[in-house]
């Protein structure tokens, strides 16, 4: 490979790697509330049916119109 082209390619790959790492962190953070809600409503899981105060509910962040449907 031509050494003059190696630096731009390496920079592009490193940038893509950093972006993928950031996306992985965002997806991981977004999945935690979904998994928590799933444990609350899916029968057969250790915390199924556990009631939480309304203000702690993952649904509390939704607009009122979305919660009633």
TrEMBL record:
Name this protein carries in UniProt: Uncharacterized protein
Species this protein is from: Labeo rohita
Superkingdom classification of source: Eukaryota
């Amino acid at each position: 490979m031509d050494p003059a082209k190696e630096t731009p390619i390496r920079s592009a790959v490193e940038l893509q790697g950093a972006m993928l790492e950031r996306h992985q962190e965002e997806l991981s953070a977004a999945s935690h509330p979904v998994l928590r809600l799933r444990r609350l409503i899916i029968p057969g899981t250790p915390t199924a049916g556990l009631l939480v105060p309304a203000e702690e509910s993952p649904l509390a962040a939704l607009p009122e119109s979305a919660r009633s449907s």
